[in-house]
Amino acid sequence: MPTSALLFTPMLAEVAGSSLEPTHISHPLRSALRRTAVVRGQITRIDLAGRRIILAADQGGSPHEVPYDELVLALGAVSNFLGLAGVQAHAFDFKSLWALGDCAEVPNAHDNQPSPPTAQFALRQAKLLAKNLHASRSGGALKPFRFAALGVLAVIGHQTACAELTIPLSGGKTVRFSGLLAWLMWRGVYLSKLPGLERQVRVLTDWVIELFFPRDIVQTIDLQPAPAMFETAQPVPQRADVVVPARPGRD
How many of the other CB atoms lie within 10 Å of CB of 211? Predict the structure, then answer.
Protein backbone atom coordinates (compact mmCIF):
# COMPACT_ATOMS: atom_id res chain seq x y z
CA MET A 1 0.00 0.00 0.00
CA PRO A 2 1.50 3.40 -0.93
CA THR A 3 2.21 5.91 1.80
CA SER A 4 1.14 9.56 2.03
CA ALA A 5 4.69 10.84 2.48
CA LEU A 6 7.95 10.90 0.55
CA LEU A 7 10.61 8.96 2.45
CA PHE A 8 14.21 10.03 1.77
CA THR A 9 15.74 6.55 1.83
CA PRO A 10 19.47 7.52 1.59
CA MET A 11 19.29 8.71 5.21
CA LEU A 12 17.41 5.71 6.63
CA ALA A 13 20.63 4.28 8.06
CA GLU A 14 21.14 7.40 10.16
CA VAL A 15 17.60 7.13 11.46
CA ALA A 16 18.32 3.54 12.50
CA GLY A 17 21.46 4.76 14.25
CA SER A 18 19.50 7.47 16.13
CA SER A 19 21.42 10.28 14.40
CA LEU A 20 18.26 11.68 12.78
CA GLU A 21 14.59 11.78 13.65
CA PRO A 22 12.26 9.79 11.35
CA THR A 23 10.10 12.87 10.74
CA HIS A 24 13.12 14.83 9.47
CA ILE A 25 13.45 12.63 6.36
CA SER A 26 9.72 12.27 5.64
CA HIS A 27 8.01 14.85 3.45
CA PRO A 28 4.17 14.79 3.27
CA LEU A 29 2.79 14.65 -0.24
CA ARG A 30 0.08 17.18 0.64
CA SER A 31 2.74 19.87 1.08
CA ALA A 32 4.92 18.79 -1.85
CA LEU A 33 2.03 18.47 -4.33
CA ARG A 34 -0.27 21.36 -3.46
CA ARG A 35 -2.12 21.33 -6.79
CA THR A 36 -2.44 17.56 -6.95
CA ALA A 37 -5.15 15.27 -5.60
CA VAL A 38 -3.39 12.29 -3.99
CA VAL A 39 -5.38 9.04 -4.10
CA ARG A 40 -4.06 6.12 -2.07
CA GLY A 41 -5.01 2.63 -3.14
CA GLN A 42 -3.96 -0.71 -4.53
CA ILE A 43 -4.25 -1.09 -8.29
CA THR A 44 -5.98 -4.29 -9.35
CA ARG A 45 -6.32 -3.61 -13.07
CA ILE A 46 -5.38 -1.05 -15.71
CA ASP A 47 -7.91 -0.60 -18.52
CA LEU A 48 -5.70 0.79 -21.27
CA ALA A 49 -8.49 0.85 -23.85
CA GLY A 50 -10.87 2.71 -21.56
CA ARG A 51 -8.12 4.80 -19.98
CA ARG A 52 -9.02 4.07 -16.40
CA ILE A 53 -7.43 2.51 -13.32
CA ILE A 54 -9.37 0.16 -11.07
CA LEU A 55 -8.44 0.27 -7.39
CA ALA A 56 -9.17 -2.44 -4.86
CA ALA A 57 -12.32 -1.98 -2.81
CA ASP A 58 -12.13 -0.68 0.72
CA GLN A 59 -13.68 -2.59 3.58
CA GLY A 60 -17.34 -2.89 2.84
CA GLY A 61 -17.06 -0.76 -0.29
CA SER A 62 -16.88 -1.24 -4.04
CA PRO A 63 -13.91 -0.95 -6.42
CA HIS A 64 -12.94 2.61 -7.25
CA GLU A 65 -12.17 3.80 -10.78
CA VAL A 66 -9.81 6.65 -11.65
CA PRO A 67 -9.91 7.95 -15.24
CA TYR A 68 -6.79 9.37 -16.85
CA ASP A 69 -5.59 11.15 -19.98
CA GLU A 70 -1.92 10.20 -19.65
CA LEU A 71 -0.69 7.37 -17.43
CA VAL A 72 2.82 7.38 -15.98
CA LEU A 73 4.18 4.27 -14.28
CA ALA A 74 7.01 5.07 -11.86
CA LEU A 75 7.06 1.98 -9.67
CA GLY A 76 9.99 0.34 -7.96
CA ALA A 77 9.30 -3.01 -9.59
CA VAL A 78 10.26 -5.22 -12.51
CA SER A 79 7.68 -6.42 -15.00
CA ASN A 80 7.18 -10.18 -15.19
CA PHE A 81 6.58 -11.32 -18.77
CA LEU A 82 6.50 -15.03 -17.80
CA GLY A 83 9.11 -15.87 -20.41
CA LEU A 84 6.93 -14.74 -23.32
CA ALA A 85 9.19 -12.88 -25.71
CA GLY A 86 6.29 -11.54 -27.77
CA VAL A 87 4.66 -9.99 -24.71
CA GLN A 88 7.93 -8.42 -23.64
CA ALA A 89 8.47 -6.90 -27.07
CA HIS A 90 4.97 -5.49 -27.51
CA ALA A 91 3.60 -4.91 -24.00
CA PHE A 92 2.19 -1.46 -23.16
CA ASP A 93 2.25 -0.35 -26.79
CA PHE A 94 -0.03 2.63 -26.14
CA LYS A 95 0.68 6.30 -26.65
CA SER A 96 -1.12 7.19 -23.41
CA LEU A 97 1.24 5.13 -21.26
CA TRP A 98 4.62 6.31 -20.01
CA ALA A 99 7.12 4.74 -17.65
CA LEU A 100 10.28 5.70 -15.82
CA GLY A 101 12.41 4.64 -12.89
CA ASP A 102 12.95 1.10 -11.66
CA CYS A 103 9.90 -0.36 -13.43
CA ALA A 104 11.10 0.62 -16.91
CA GLU A 105 14.11 -0.14 -19.07
CA VAL A 106 14.88 3.36 -20.29
CA PRO A 107 17.51 3.47 -23.05
CA ASN A 108 20.18 6.08 -22.58
CA ALA A 109 21.11 7.85 -25.80
CA HIS A 110 24.45 8.79 -24.25
CA ASP A 111 25.85 5.25 -24.48
CA ASN A 112 22.95 3.28 -26.00
CA GLN A 113 22.64 1.21 -22.83
CA PRO A 114 19.73 0.77 -20.40
CA SER A 115 19.75 3.34 -17.63
CA PRO A 116 20.66 2.00 -14.18
CA PRO A 117 17.94 2.21 -11.48
CA THR A 118 19.53 5.02 -9.49
CA ALA A 119 18.16 8.32 -8.23
CA GLN A 120 20.29 10.57 -10.44
CA PHE A 121 18.87 8.86 -13.55
CA ALA A 122 15.28 8.67 -12.27
CA LEU A 123 15.14 12.38 -11.42
CA ARG A 124 16.31 13.38 -14.88
CA GLN A 125 13.98 10.88 -16.52
CA ALA A 126 11.08 12.51 -14.67
CA LYS A 127 12.02 15.99 -15.90
CA LEU A 128 12.35 14.79 -19.48
CA LEU A 129 9.09 12.89 -19.22
CA ALA A 130 7.27 16.04 -18.11
CA LYS A 131 8.64 17.87 -21.15
CA ASN A 132 7.71 15.01 -23.48
CA LEU A 133 4.19 14.88 -22.04
CA HIS A 134 3.75 18.56 -22.81
CA ALA A 135 5.23 18.08 -26.27
CA SER A 136 2.91 15.15 -27.04
CA ARG A 137 -0.15 17.18 -26.04
CA SER A 138 0.92 20.25 -28.00
CA GLY A 139 2.19 18.44 -31.10
CA GLY A 140 5.89 18.95 -30.41
CA ALA A 141 8.76 16.56 -30.97
CA LEU A 142 9.72 14.04 -28.30
CA LYS A 143 13.31 13.93 -27.08
CA PRO A 144 15.25 10.79 -26.15
CA PHE A 145 16.75 10.41 -22.72
CA ARG A 146 20.44 11.32 -22.62
CA PHE A 147 22.52 11.57 -19.46
CA ALA A 148 26.11 10.85 -18.41
CA ALA A 149 26.41 9.46 -14.89
CA LEU A 150 27.97 11.82 -12.36
CA GLY A 151 29.39 9.05 -10.17
CA VAL A 152 28.50 7.20 -6.99
CA LEU A 153 28.89 7.88 -3.27
CA ALA A 154 28.50 5.40 -0.42
CA VAL A 155 28.95 5.64 3.34
CA ILE A 156 30.97 2.72 4.74
CA GLY A 157 31.43 3.72 8.38
CA HIS A 158 31.68 6.50 10.94
CA GLN A 159 32.74 9.66 9.10
CA THR A 160 34.02 7.50 6.25
CA ALA A 161 32.72 7.09 2.73
CA CYS A 162 33.94 6.10 -0.71
CA ALA A 163 33.41 7.94 -3.98
CA GLU A 164 33.81 7.39 -7.70
CA LEU A 165 33.22 10.60 -9.63
CA THR A 166 33.24 11.24 -13.35
CA ILE A 167 35.73 13.87 -14.49
CA PRO A 168 34.00 16.46 -16.71
CA LEU A 169 35.11 16.60 -20.35
CA SER A 170 37.39 13.58 -19.88
CA GLY A 171 35.60 11.07 -22.05
CA GLY A 172 34.16 9.09 -19.13
CA LYS A 173 37.26 8.88 -16.94
CA THR A 174 36.63 8.60 -13.21
CA VAL A 175 38.51 9.34 -10.01
CA ARG A 176 38.18 7.27 -6.85
CA PHE A 177 38.86 8.30 -3.27
CA SER A 178 37.62 7.58 0.23
CA GLY A 179 37.75 8.92 3.76
CA LEU A 180 36.51 12.06 5.45
CA LEU A 181 36.35 14.13 2.24
CA ALA A 182 34.08 11.58 0.57
CA TRP A 183 31.91 11.46 3.69
CA LEU A 184 31.53 15.26 3.76
CA MET A 185 30.72 15.22 0.05
CA TRP A 186 28.08 12.51 0.58
CA ARG A 187 26.40 14.55 3.30
CA GLY A 188 26.51 17.74 1.28
CA VAL A 189 25.02 16.14 -1.84
CA TYR A 190 22.18 14.37 -0.06
CA LEU A 191 21.43 17.32 2.17
CA SER A 192 20.87 19.41 -0.96
CA LYS A 193 18.59 16.69 -2.38
CA LEU A 194 16.44 16.49 0.76
CA PRO A 195 13.07 18.12 -0.12
CA GLY A 196 12.03 21.11 1.95
CA LEU A 197 14.14 23.88 3.50
CA GLU A 198 12.73 23.14 6.95
CA ARG A 199 13.93 19.52 6.87
CA GLN A 200 17.30 20.53 5.50
CA VAL A 201 17.79 22.86 8.47
CA ARG A 202 16.64 20.21 10.93
CA VAL A 203 18.96 17.56 9.51
CA LEU A 204 21.91 19.96 9.39
CA THR A 205 21.23 20.94 13.02
CA ASP A 206 21.19 17.28 14.06
CA TRP A 207 24.50 16.69 12.30
CA VAL A 208 26.18 19.70 13.93
CA ILE A 209 24.96 18.72 17.39
CA GLU A 210 26.26 15.19 16.89
CA LEU A 211 29.73 16.51 16.03
CA PHE A 212 30.07 18.25 19.41
CA PHE A 213 27.85 16.01 21.51
CA PRO A 214 28.02 12.40 20.32
CA ARG A 215 25.03 10.28 21.17
CA ASP A 216 25.23 8.00 24.21
CA ILE A 217 24.75 4.27 24.02
CA VAL A 218 22.15 3.33 26.59
CA GLN A 219 20.45 -0.01 27.03
CA THR A 220 16.77 0.66 27.47
CA ILE A 221 15.54 -2.94 27.12
CA ASP A 222 16.16 -5.46 29.90
CA LEU A 223 17.11 -8.75 28.29
CA GLN A 224 16.77 -10.69 31.56
CA PRO A 225 13.45 -12.35 32.39
CA ALA A 226 11.31 -10.15 34.59
CA PRO A 227 10.83 -11.44 38.17
CA ALA A 228 7.42 -12.73 39.12
CA MET A 229 5.35 -10.00 40.72
CA PHE A 230 3.29 -12.42 42.77
CA GLU A 231 4.48 -15.61 44.44
CA THR A 232 2.31 -18.66 44.12
CA ALA A 233 0.21 -18.97 47.23
CA GLN A 234 0.56 -22.18 49.24
CA PRO A 235 -2.65 -24.10 49.84
CA VAL A 236 -4.21 -23.40 53.26
CA PRO A 237 -5.01 -26.59 55.21
CA GLN A 238 -8.65 -27.14 55.99
CA ARG A 239 -9.87 -27.42 59.62
CA ALA A 240 -10.27 -31.02 60.73
CA ASP A 241 -10.70 -33.00 63.99
CA VAL A 242 -7.44 -34.40 65.36
CA VAL A 243 -7.52 -37.74 67.27
CA VAL A 244 -4.68 -38.29 69.76
CA PRO A 245 -4.14 -41.96 70.66
CA ALA A 246 -4.08 -42.83 74.44
CA ARG A 247 -0.86 -43.88 76.09
CA PRO A 248 -0.53 -47.56 77.13
CA GLY A 249 -1.61 -48.32 80.78
CA ARG A 250 -4.08 -45.46 80.95
CA ASP A 251 -7.80 -45.69 80.72
Answer: 8
